[in-house]
Design a protein that fits this description.
Four copies of one chain form a homotetramer. By secondary structure, chain A is α/β, with parallel strands linked by helices. Chain A has 21 helices and 15 strands.
């Protein structure tokens, strides 16, 4: 065998693109251009080493014979000239996350919602952060919203074809490509100038729904103006004491076809106590002097953004009076947001078809601290009045951080789950693209989870896929279990019947 | 359209009061004086920006059109002269609490009882702090007093008119404006010269009750001297071995009309072990030399303020002998403090009407460590002898930090809750005004909680508003569940009857 | 009223002893010599201020009128000369434990067993510390030994005369003044030269029992040589493979009258894995060179003090063969140590009166990690075979840190509790006096606990004084609960009968 | 008695080997050469002090008389010359692990699997570490795999002869000397050049089994080439979409006699999300420039080693189609890996004898986060379909860190347990010897545990040796417990029958 000509490293270095990709392996130069699309590890992992000696990366992860099995002998171009290679530089070993934090990480390097939140926290104003992050009192409900999902175990089934995965679901008859929508979340422009319109753009890309906050920092008209033809919006209503204002607003909403339903919010008739939000007003200002100069009364304790937004909200809403009024001022379907007990879910279902759906929510832990997570409410409904699921559409929000959380909620009977802070922090981390990244992460995690459970469609998910024993132990067990007298039972509603009636 | 005259920033700056309030928005000067009282976010948030460019603050939280909707065109005074504006200074972003800690925070900026305690800890002496903060042994009961509330979940009901909120309750027939009173807590002047008299002043402002400690650092006469006409006091009695002393004291108390009842304390017949308190005597003194100079016996281990106060207290009290003696020396109603089992609550109720009420209390975790929190005792009573609630007034103390804690205790059957350390730390943080701030915080939190539960009056709160499963799992289950022989049952009291009798 | 002569501070300063004690209060000099024994807070608290201005200390803790009530007018000696007083120096405020750590703290300032351990840890060698502190594997059992007590709640009864408190108990008919004894704990001289003899001296002072370790660092004869006339000892036997050695030792023990029983240890037939102990041999030595110089084989992993002590121990002991052999070689009563299941407790009770008592123990968590704490075994016995308590004396050890722990074990049926590490760390902290301080702390804490429970004698403690629900949830529930076939039941022993028989 | 000649320390120092070993004790020189093999603490502890004054080490751990009992008077060579001794140097006292970390610790000083992992983490590349360490999402399943063992308590029986301990077990009729085997773990050469062949060498030394990963970094032929005559291997199959590839590979495996079975992996039909692994690609590279130079598409999020390995894996496997295909292409027994529910274990057992065994596994927590630990699946099988254990061999992997974990799994019904990361980190810590150290640690810990339970053979371990109440509380309780309609029951399989059938 004739001696082969040595190839110089500079020559190899030129072939570092998809169009011509050479690598050095065990002292030989190989042309892997045609192999790029077939590489089990993807093309990029090779492209990163294109034009270089890849032996150190290649060797420990490929058994001998791999090269020969995958490349024709003709692809071996010849031996490298060893003198032409640069001295190897050992990379420093370090365990843990990326040490260089001077450059902002690309959105694609943010791997989960916690990392999105961390990135946004660095970018947005303290006031905006405090408003988004804050929750009532001691954050017990906000924390529980999340940890209750961790306490539920999944039950993967094996030997099932999981090639296909269809995440589509419906809400009020509208099709959503994802079982993940954006909850009404106020003041999006505190995160990014794209604001609620930006969230709408991201939702369009993923074929999902957005419920516009009554306190949005943009007008509904602005938010929906670039909507896709099938894009779905809801509009959140906080009824004002001055009813005329709400009626005028409803008239305006009635004209917007993209808005498919009205979402009446019930979980915050008065503002919760959000200390981080209240505290932000004390930061970065010389309060004493300002107020004295203004000649004003002394500043009361409290009063962050959260409380300002409640000004004018009517705390006197009731089943009997508010629903008929609302029905009179809109022809769109009505849903209720903020139900936190099976009793209220049961009453809402009794009002079908006047009410088409409900959102189980504790307002992201922002209203009443130690209120139950909506997973509890789902489990309560399932235990005490499962007929609710067949009468109205039930969705939930609060605490969603992972695709596995989404899937667990679906297993328990929700038709979709909403994200609030997730969308706002996504917006803060990167505007439209940040929200898209959030939806992309959750979509991919949800798909992975459904596949590993052996499930192809959302409607196949059920109680057999989850082990909820830890959560079940803690759900409400009725007022009668400690000796209190209870009303007489009726149907599956048991002994809460009388008490319920007296409240309606 | 004619060109408008530019307005100089110095001119705008003059209009920075309630009487004349101008702000710059999007390059235009607006007169918002008349709008101040209508602003949903309150007048102050505008006054802080009066005379300045408010665009950066205004823009991200208002949708377009808001200005036009709310202000007449005549309120637009003209464009600002852009050259007259100062260079913008970006405030540094920082997450977390107020960085400048050199000035004491105003009381209104202290948002919860933990912040009150932190502020007081900085101000009061180490000895005082040690006495207030300390609890028995390893603080297990003190800790549990608080965490047991966190384990109880609330059940908010929606679509209920929550415009009104009436927190008033009664105790022994006396009306309290708040279901929150001040427990007997000794040595208030260690916190502030206002002492127990100061606490009384704060209670007057809020229309609530104070129980005066037997070991107060002021005389009962001093404490009640500025009481309001309807102000309610109780007086705590530790019976002395030298009974004459107690009888003389009772005679003195009998003359004070403001004192409505005698509170016989039973949970600390001997002092608990409070190490932080004991330890404080070793601080800041050169113990060896002092003691030697004094020619005295060696210092025994133990002996903080807590133990000193017990000197002379009689540990031999009994149902049979002490109650008749007490009855003979007072004509005021008698309540018992420090019951920690349903058995003792049951026995107390058997002594009605001689006994009018009980305070479930483990002495703030200061007597016996790992004694149950009074929430356990409430649940025990509810389970084993609920008739107690109808025979005597039951109130509780220990661990209250939040309005939600107050509401949970009321749901479980308490007529009111007492705060001890909360009042003392309030006093330490700011004298009378500090105690008022504590009561204000708890009142406001309690109101928020009642409203969000959909409840208007204290007597509407019930077991249907709380999920106590986690706590119920841990309450006492009877001595018979592990095979021990139990006495025969009687009524709802079950198989504890015989054992109870043998103890009475 | 004539002007009074001013008294110079130097004159006051001379009166700073029990024999003549003056203090300055509110500008007046008082002679409080006669009042010293009557002071509710004790004489020392005054003696520390003798000869000085005590106003700052006195004022905030005494209501007005206290002076006049307690001291005759003649005790007021006159006004102090204000110019003669030194400038007041404000002590720096600091929260937390004693800042000056340069001097070792006096034993009386060590308030609990954790502080004793911390003090000893500073004084003893690393090797000794590692041997005492270490436990098997991951310390799970050592940790659980302690935390299981924290999970048990006490149930204090009130309005019971608790003047008297008698802690005496019996073991094998011997009277102990305390229900707390010293477990067999090896190698006491690693802590202090007083060694096991020192422990014996401390036990004598408190009238309690010591079980001498088979691996004591002193001979039994040395240990018992200064015993009191009624002092009780046991002797722990690890049976040697070379039986003759054990027989000779037993013969030696038979001659010592102070030793009242033989304690056959069963919980460590082979050594547990105690990594901290094994690791200590790697510290402070240049192992490679040493071993090479020694020309020896390579050091095996493992091998701290713990493993050395096992050399020669016989792992083949059985109920059938070992008991008769032992009976032949001693005329003293026999007890068994290290039972960890109700099954073995039941079998032991079947061997009464050959066996007189048992010690429930997991060897301080030093043998098998994740073995149950002896509280579990007590609860198992109570549930499955409570007759054991009436046939043999049951005591327990492991995890005792507080008097409340002692009382809880007694409530569950133990006749006494043993401390091992507590005694050794006491010895390390201060020799005999250190062990005495440990016993003093536990005795005082136990008395406080009994009093606050309303109990006068050890035999009155019972299941009604404890709430063990959290612990009960976790005790063994039988092998049959997951579908495994179980033997037929017999008596209260249920379905473990057959399996038990097959093992005997 | 004549005065004895003093012996110089230099003379003593020469006798520091096994052949001649002198030590100084209490001022006397002793010849302990003959005593070395008899020393209860082992020879090494003496050899370390050979030629030196051993008094300080000897004294506190030996009672007086020990010397005289064990050594003949003739072994006393005479008094040491005190002037010849060096000045004593007190070693500094320090608590905690070895302070000098500059030299790598010898393998024998690594006492448990955590220390092995820590040592390996320092040695291997970040990429390798990230691949081994990583698990899905939030590490919940990886964490639970381990902690579930901690929640199970052991029940040691006493007074049982535990001289002998036989750890052998069988799998598919093959004898294993240990109940511990090596799971299929990919890419071993990332840890050490010895790679999977090195693991095989270590398994040979301990007589146990290795299952070769489909993604091994060496060929199966290389791995088995130095196998012992009775050495057992399995081969893991990931079926490729391009079936021909899998068929060719199976043909190759069929020729290797050392491979006794095919292990079809089912728990990862699609890759889990392993963020630490994905993140490692962002480290130590200038990603932007590299990718741009390569002219390629933008890097997608995700894509560590884990995802690369999945390229080409077929996600469409089913009971009906895949098993017959596999049967056609191999004549070796087939087992299934990755079952996580009792339902799938039940179905697998229905396929016996086509299927001979199953591995309960959640893929080391690397596939679906919050999937149950395999201990849960074992408990489910035991509760709902215990007949599975008699039809097929059940082994498990995941979370094994201690011998007690091994024993617990055996008690619950597993025939053996697999370790994955343990073997890889052992390899990283020291190649073949590192893997041997891992197996040695687990073998020794397992033996200690079996002995302390009073058990001689693996088949004697049963449910009576474990208390699993905490774990049982959390296992799956069926889909019907919250009101969902369930199919009709059949046999011990209860109401899961119909649902099961519909899935098959």
């Amino acid at each position: 065998m004739a001696e082969e000509t040595l190839i110089h490293a500079d020559e190899v270095a030129k072939h570092n693109t998809r169009d011509s990709c050479w690598v050095i392996l065990y002292g030989q130069v190989w042309d892997v251009t045609d192999f790029l699309p077939e590489h089990p590890g993807g093309a990029n992992i090779i492209l990163k080493l294109a034009g270089k000696d890849a032996t150190e990366e290649y060797d420990p992860v490929h058994p001998p014979g791999t090269l020969e099995e995958n490349l024709a002998p003709s692809k071996r171009l010849g031996p490298i000239d060893p003198k032409s290679l640069p001295e190897p530089v050992k990379p420093a070993q370090n365990i843990g996350p990326e040490p260089d934090e001077s450059r902002p990480a690309p959105l694609s390097s943010l791997l989960n919602l916690d990392e999105i939140e961390a990135a946004a926290t660095k970018k947005i104003s303290r006031k905006g952060w405090a408003y988004y992050y804050s929750a009532a009192d001691d954050y017990a409900s906000k924390h529980l919203n999340n940890t209750v999902y961790r306490s539920i175990l999944l039950r993967p089934r094996v030997f099932i074809d999981c090639t296909r995965c269809d995440q589509s679901t419906t809400f009020l008859g509208n099709k959503l490509e994802l079982p993940i929508y954006v909850s009404p979340a106020a003041m999006a422009r505190l995160a990014h100038p794209d604001g609620e319109w930006g969230i709408a753009q991201a939702c369009k890309s993923f074929g999902t729904m957005q419920i516009i906050s009554n306190n949005a920092s943009m007008t509904p008209e602005q938010i929906v103006k670039d909507a896709g033809p099938d894009q779905i919006f809801g509009w959140q209503l906080y009824v004002q004491t001055e009813r005329k204002k709400s009626e005028d607003y409803l008239a305006r909403i009635n004209k917007l076809d993209a808005i498919k339903f009205i979402c009446l919010t019930l979980d915050a008739p008065v503002p919760g106590k959000r200390e981080e939000d209240e505290r932000s007003k004390y930061i970065n200002e010389d309060h004493d002097s300002v107020i004295k100069d203004a000649g004003g009364s002394k500043l009361e304790g409290g009063g962050g953004i959260g409380q300002s937004l409640f000004f004018g909200t009517d705390p006197s809403l009731t089943w009997k009076e508010t629903l008929p009024w609302l029905k009179k001022h809109t022809n769109k379907p009505i849903i209720l947001k903020g139900l936190q007990t099976h009793e209220d879910a049961y009453i809402a279902a009794q009002h079908a078809p006047q009410i088409k759906g409900i959102i189980l929510s504790n307002h992201g832990g922002r209203a009443l601290d130690t209120a139950p997570p909506s997973v509890h409410t789902l489990l309560e409904i399932r235990k005490y009045c499962p007929e609710v699921f067949s009468k109205i559409d039930v969705v939930i929000d609060g605490g969603i951080k992972r695709g596995t959380d989404v899937v667990k909620a679906l297993c328990l009977g929700a038709k979709a789950v909403g994200i609030g802070r997730g969308a706002l922090f996504g917006l803060g981390a990167g505007g439209i693209e940040g929200v898209e990244r959030v939806l992309e992460i959750l979509r991919d995690e949800t798909a992975t989870c459904m596949r590993l459970l052996g499930v192809e469609r959302v409607d196949q998910l059920g109680m057999q896929h989850v082990n909820t024993r830890a959560a079940e132990r803690d759900i409400y067990d009725g007022p009668g279990n400690l000796g209190q007298k209870a009303g007489e039972g009726e149907g599956s509603y048991g002994n809460y019947g009388l008490w319920l009636k007296s409240k309606m």
